[in-house]
Specification:
The protein has 259 residues and is an alpha/beta fold. The protein contains eight helices and seven strands. The chain has a single domain (5-258), classed as Rossmann fold. The longest helix is centred in the middle third of the chain and has 28 residues, at 115-142. Strands 3-2-1-4-5-6-7 form a seven-stranded parallel beta sheet, with helices on both faces. It starts with a helix and ends in a 7-residue tail after the last strand. Belongs to the short-chain dehydrogenases/reductases (SDR) family. It holds the Pfam family adh_short_C2. Keywords: NADP, Oxidoreductase. One of its GO terms (molecular function) is mannitol 2-dehydrogenase (NADP+) activity. One of its GO terms (biological process) is small molecule metabolic process.
Length: 259
């Protein structure tokens, strides 16, 4: 293995599949991986511009980028996406399970039915399982691979002032799923997670100015993150710089969980 620190972080010759990659954290990760040399299978759900986004990224990074419609709460769609990407690229070295939604239905007892709870669990938890299952099958056959989950600081703390028990529970499950799979797959793949704090993406559009001000008051650094400030952790976990790292969770939250 190379001891050159820069070559360790290179993804040249690797293929990465990233879900929820048409915007936000997922796109920032896909963009970074592509510019680090990886070919990209860009998974999206409802974006109308994902195909053009993929074409633009391929041109700017000089790699192959293919867009796949992949609603992660549909196990058949996830399986089809992995099969198509494997046929296209011949291998998948890295998988980032990033797609997720938030809970905007208020207190847990408020919604009149179970649909909101089920939707959050279907996407955040079951979707993570479907992605992991397909990734694991490929990694086991190859004898190698790196799976990275996007979790959240909500796996460790209870966010305020918003009420989001369903989201918190889903992310706590994702974090423990990552740790469990790290043990199960230790002989052939690495599994880790990244837990962002408050980040400026579409998923936080539900918050009004007063809520955001409360978040900032509780963050020692006094602000939310930009997606680009998270990507170093993903690059580390995807690259050969982390070949002895598995079962880890990297918290990036401006100090929020310290107080």
């Amino acid at each position: 293995m190379s001891t050159d620190p820069f070559s360790l972080f290179s993804l040249k010759g690797k293929t990465a599949l990233v879900t929820g990659a048409s915007a936000g954290i997922g796109f920032a990760v896909a963009h970074t991986f592509a510019h680090a040399g990886a070919d990209i299978a860009l998974g999206y759900n409802s974006s109308l511009t994902a195909i053009q986004t993929a074409a633009d990224l391929a041109k700017s990074a000089g790699v192959t980028v293919e867009a796949y419609k992949c609603p992660v709460d549909d196990s058949d769609a996830v399986a089809s996406t992995f099969a198509s990407a494997l046929e296209k690229f011949g291998k998948i070295d890295i998988v980032v399970s990033n797609a997720g939604i938030t809970w905007t239905s208020g207190e847990l007892i408020d919604p009149p039915d179970h649909k909101a709870w089920k939707q959050v669990m279907d996407v955040n938890l079951d979707g993570s399982y479907y992605v992991a299952k397909e990734a694991g099958r490929i990694f086991k056959a190859q004898g190698y691979g790196s799976l990275i989950f996007t979790s959240s600081i909500s796996a460790f703390i209870v966010n305020v002032p918003q009420r989001q028990a369903a989201y918190n529970a889903s992310k706590a499950a994702v974090t423990h799923l990552a740790k469990s799979l790290a043990v199960e797959w230790a002989s052939f793949a690495r599994v880790n997670s990244v837990s962002p704090g408050y980040t400026i993406t579409e998923i936080t559009n539900f918050a009004d100015d007063d809520m955001r001000e409360e978040w900032r008051r509780r963050i020692p650094m006094g602000r939310e993150a930009l997606p680009v400030e998270l990507v170093g952790a993903y690059l580390y976990l995807a690259s050969d710089a982390s070949t002895y790292t598995t079962g880890s969770d990297i918290i990036i939250d401006g100090g929020y969980t310290l107080i």
